[in-house]
Specification:
The chain is an alpha/beta fold. It has one domain: TIM Barrel, CATH 3.20.20. It has an eight-stranded parallel sheet. Strand 4, helix 4 and strand 5 form a beta-alpha-beta unit. The protein is globular and about 45 Å long. The termini are close together. The protein binds D-xylitol-5-phosphate and zinc ion. D-xylitol-5-phosphate binds next to strand 2, strand 8 and helix 7.
């Protein structure tokens, strides 16, 4: 199975020491930054000013996950600020094709996320517009939740569609990723793995990254 990336989520890091927390995941492929607006999801995290500082000091690429309403309005600025990828929710975008194009033209990889109950089929024609498809494996909003097994068939269908298209769209999974669940997600075809508590909940985050990488590669 073609896996590539472990992206730790700083949602489980110490928000008052972000720079040193970033220094603990130098072996990660990117840092996953969860932007929440207390409207699209019932939680509030951080926004563009903090993301700009993360971009300035991060030793690894920055992967933005926007859990916000009116993504059409707010997402492009994150790409312009220099994020390597910007992912908006399909449920929160009025014009997802236009938005994905705008993200790319602002220099970021364009990502689109689906909540666990949102089917992938209506969006398959959009694959050429995307660099990344995020299949949420928990309801977005909080770290530390359990992986939803019901998302595995959707991961499989999305991965099959990507393979069939010949495009290189990453299939990212986010939520409840552990050394056990990462194996099933990788077998289903996911290629990029977000992990919050499994990385920052460990006394040695880089050792946790290495174990996740090994588990995914062995799937
Ligand atoms: C949840 C966030 C995730 C979260 C994952 O809405 O999108 O990125 O940090 O945390 P874990 O890995 O603990 O489930
Ligand atoms: Zn996330």
């Amino acid at each position: 199975m073609m896996t590539c990336c472990i992206n730790p989520s700083i949602l489980s890091a110490d928000f008052v020491n972000l720079e040193s927390e970033l220094g603990r995941i130098r072996t990660a492929d990117a840092v996953h930054v969860d932007v929440m607006d207390n409207s699209f999801v019932p939680n509030l995290t951080l926004g563009l000013p903090v993301v700009k500082r993360i971009l300035a000091v991060s030793p690894v690429a920055v992967d933005i996950h926007l859990m916000i309403d009116d993504a059409d309005r707010w997402a492009p600025a994150y790409a312009e600020a220099g994020a390597s990828s910007v992912t908006f929710h399909a449920e929160a975008a009025a014009a997802p094709v236009r938005l994905a194009r705008e993200l790319r033209s602002n220099g970021a990889k364009a990502g689109m996320a689906l909540r666990p109950a949102t089917p992938v089929e209506p969006y398959l024609d959009m694959l050429p517009e995307l660099d990344l498809l995020l299949i949420m494996t928990v309801e977005p909003g909080f770290g530390g939740q359990s992986f939803l097994e019901m998302t595995l068939p959707k991961i499989r269908r999305a991965a099959d569609a990507v393979r069939g298209s010949g495009l290189s769209v990453a299939i990212q999974v986010d939520g409840g990723i552990t050394e056990e669940t990462i194996v099933r997600a990788a077998e289903a075809g996911a290629t990029v793995f977000v992990a919050g508590s499994a990385v920052y909940g460990d006394a040695d985050p880089e050792a946790a990254i290495a174990r996740l990488r090994k588990a995914a590669a062995g799937a």
